[in-house]
Design brief:
Elements (H helix, E strand, L loop, with lengths): L17 H14 L6 H14 L3 E5 L2 H10 L8 E5 L4 H9 L3 E5 L10 H7 L4 E4 L11 H11 L4 E3 L7 E2 L2 E2 L6 E5 L12 E5 L2 H10 L22 H12 L1 H19 L5 E3 L6 E2 L6 E4 L7 H10 L5 E2 L9 H4 L4 E2 L4 H9 E3 L8 H15 L1
Parallel strand pairs: 2-3, 2-4, 3-14, 5-8
Antiparallel strand pairs: 1-9, 6-7, 6-11, 8-9, 10-12, 12-15, 13-15
Helix pairs in contact: 1-8, 2-8, 3-4
């Protein structure tokens, strides 16, 4: 059980049994085929079934998957990619690594996903792609974004890093837009320890990405057909991912049950709100954030520091907005409007400890601390 004052991390991976991982990877290890072998192939096939898509390409990280997916567009240098500013830095980093220009737009209130109306305002003759983001595990307005994509002939390359296991209109995430890119890092519900996977129904794109994740090699393994990366997934990581995926339903259900408890307790905290969950979609439960408004007893930063003194880790997430961060301010970019909702939510959002094996006692400890500060 541990001491009630032991450090409580914001996230901790729920990992499969290590002996089962060793068993899954044993043949690959003994044969020496330790990267992009039969375990990776099995993992990709099970991702296809899980997401209801034709193709899955396992990669070394979600960021490398995003980089390669944008590179596969063959857009001219400086072409624009529309992204929300309320996101993790990797969204913009993938754009900049391709010598493309991020165009930052505002998010919606409530869901905090990208605002399709702002996406429309951002369109220009230089727009090469639209990159919507799954926020805390909740998909964006896929219908409206798909409509914009079809009308304008501009591909959707979706940063679904936190979305594996989420649904939209009853369909599993994975088949939205030209491709979706998921993360399998330690902070994700379904983890491979490190890694990512690109899902698509475009066979040509899948074949190109398979080449590009291995430097861009052609069939003979000698001539390079594309400018790629070393972005392969190892057999060990695939084994962890495979076993995690087979337990996905239980992992997600545990998270969503914890989120329901958090939301019930948060309803008693004056001046605080939580993310809206529209009826047409479900979250993977990747994060829970409490939004501490101006009328709350303490502001977000005061609560963040107070929890730290109680050995409870939290995270100001996403903070600051991407377009305002040091790494991106001096790089070519465009901002559409003043992004008022992005600024407001970024100043209020506080991610709280959440993981699939979190106990009720651990969660109660977080809730009691919040109640003592905010109720």
């Amino acid at each position: 059980m541990g001491n009630v004052n032991d450090p409580l991390p914001i996230i901790r991976p729920t990992l499969p049994d290590l002996e089962a991982v060793f068993a899954a990877v044993r043949d690959s290890y003994d044969s020496g085929t330790v990267t992009v072998g039969k375990v990776v192939d099995r993992f990709e096939r099970e991702i296809c079934r899980f997401c209801g898509v034709d193709h899955a390409v396992a990669v070394s990280s979600c960021t490398s998957g995003l980089m390669l997916s944008l590179a596969a567009l063959d857009a001219p240098k400086g072409a624009e990619v529309i992204v929300p500013s309320f996101t993790f830095a990797a969204t913009a980093q993938a754009v900049l690594w391709n010598d493309l220009t991020p165009v930052y737009v505002d998010c919606l209130p409530g869901t905090m996903t990208v605002d399709p109306n702002e996406v429309e305002k951002a369109l220009s003759t230089r727009t090469a792609a639209i990159m919507p983001v799954t926020i805390y595990g909740l998909p964006p307005d896929c219908d409206r974004l798909s409509e914009i994509s079809r009308e304008q002939g501009i591909p959707l390359v979706s940063d679904s890093a936190q979305g594996l296991g989420s649904t939209y209109q009853g369909a599993a995430a994975g088949g939205f837009g030209r491709c979706e890119v998921f993360s399998l890092s330690p902070t994700k519900v379904i983890t491979a320890i490190e890694g990512g996977v690109v899902t698509t129904n475009d066979s040509g794109l899948a074949a190109k990405l398979r080449s590009m994740r291995d430097y861009g090699k052609g069939p003979d393994g000698e001539e390079m057909l594309f400018n790629g990366l070393s972005a392969r997934m190892s057999e060990f990581h695939a084994a962890v991912g495979l076993l995690s995926l087979r337990n996905a339903e239980a992992l997600i259900e545990a998270r969503l049950n914890l989120i329901r408890r958090y939301r019930e307790r948060a309803a008693e905290l004056h001046g605080c709100t939580v993310q809206d969950f529209p009826e047409d979609r479900t979250s993977s439960g990747n994060y829970f954030t409490l939004h501490i408004g101006q009328t709350a007893a303490k502001d977000r930063d005061a609560v963040f520091h107070a929890l730290k003194t109680r050995n409870i880790q939290s995270k100001r997430y996403f903070y600051p907005p991407v377009h305002a961060q040091t790494a991106f301010r001096t790089r070519p970019h465009r901002v559409v409007g003043d992004l008022p909702r992005t600024w407001s939510i970024s100043a209020q959002a506080l991610a709280l400890p959440l993981y699939s094996h979190m106990t009720a006692a651990q969660q109660d400890r977080v809730c009691r601390a919040l109640e003592s500060l905010l109720k």
